[in-house]
Design goal:
alpha/beta, five-stranded parallel β-sheet, single chain, globular
């Protein structure tokens, strides 16, 4: 079974693309969702996060995302420390999940493959791209946050120009109809290249 990474900058539409692959019958692992579950349920992760951020990291036994965001997006060293705690746990969980899938390939949707130097972990990588204006607009609507907040997050991600040469397939997410056609094409190519 091949492991395929699906990545893209914030607001690129990688979750939309992941859902399109899932609708075609491809097993898709959503790293953000699974990371949140693991940070909520894993005693080991909770302990490490509290040691790093203090008791305020959890509020009413739930992950205090607002507090964590305010801490990490202004401190890249703290963000790296959090990633060093969470990413190995998510990777192990993904590998266990993948073993239980009956498919020629599985997709892991994850935002920062290249930023974490994880490209060699995958057999193939799909990059979802979109213009900066589209991405800003999508995230402002989706998260209800200011442009400055989104741009601060973008600074922690490599620009698309650098990621394109490292990716096997590029899906430019301009409009849903075109994106859906490209997803079908990439799905066909992945089946042919197994």
């Amino acid at each position: 079974m091949k492991l395929v990474g699906l990545t893209g900058g914030i607001g690129s539409g990688k979750t939309t693309v992941a859902k399109m692959f899932a609708a075609l019958g491809v097993p898709v692992y959503n790293s953000d969702e699974e990371a949140k579950k693991l940070m909520r349920k894993s005693k080991k992760l909770k302990k490490a996060i509290i040691e790093l951020f203090g008791n305020e990291a959890y509020k009413d036994k739930k992950l205090n995302k607002k507090y964590l965001s305010s801490q990490i997006f202004n401190d890249s060293a703290l963000l790296q420390k959090l990633n060093a705690i969470v990413h190995p746990a998510v990777r192990n969980h993904f590998l266990k999940w993948a073993k239980h899938q009956d498919a020629p390939f599985v997709i892991q949707e994850t935002a920062i493959i290249f930023e974490n130097n994880m490209q060699d972990f995958y057999d193939m990588i799909i990059l979802v791209t979109a213009s900066k204006e589209s991405r800003l607009q999508r995230v402002m609507i989706r998260d209800g946050v200011e442009i400055e907040n989104i741009e601060a997050r973008m600074k922690h991600q490599l620009p698309d120009a650098k990621k394109i040469s490292l990716s096997d397939y590029i899906i430019d997410n301009i409009d849903l109809a075109t994106t859906a056609l490209k997803v079908k094409e990439v799905n066909r190519l992945l089946h042919e290249n197994r």
